[in-house]
Amino acid sequence: DLALQIDHLRQTCDSYLRIQQTAPASIQLANARADLAALIAELTEDIRDLQASIAAVQPTPARFGLTPEQLRQRISFVDSASSDIRAVENILCNPVSRVPVPPINPAPLTQQTPLLPDSPRNDVFQLQQHDYLMREQDSQLESVHTTVRTIRDQATSMGRELQDHQEHPPQSVSSDFLQDPASDRPSRRSDRP
Fold first, then answer.
1. Where are the domains of the chain?
2. Which of 9, 81, 141, 145 has CA 20 to 30 A from 104's CA?
3. Given pLDDT bands bounded at 50, 70 and 90, which one contains residue 129?
């Protein structure tokens, strides 16, 4: 059900933002980013399917058992879901703030714990690790963003093609689309939970 998936996307985004504030250089943040990116890609595909269904029934909604008001509701639902996905994508694409990471042992060094001349200070080492993780995460995020952008372009192209053939809409339309968007609909793909 797309409505439930959008709710899950919001919750995952909230979790990502909390982790970003509390542990900006953690593996947990990288995992949260990956989860968000996967959700965005999956939901973008679902939106594309619904947009194709809308384009197919829009010329003659009554032929598919829909009133003009029901069609408007579905269009509004898809637009709202698309807006939510874009908002989360924008959050995900913003670079993580480079907040200095405190050293593991912030106590001042004493004569009993001298530094070797060629040893880096602990806080410098931590900051270098932090910067490295951020660069890796930004690189992965850029790759995901490119993939999502490609999927979005494909959806736009498909929508244009369907509109070009509105005189002869297909006879079969996704049963998910014909149901109320707020109801519990079965997944279109059997491999999805």
1. 2-100+122-166
2. 141
3. low
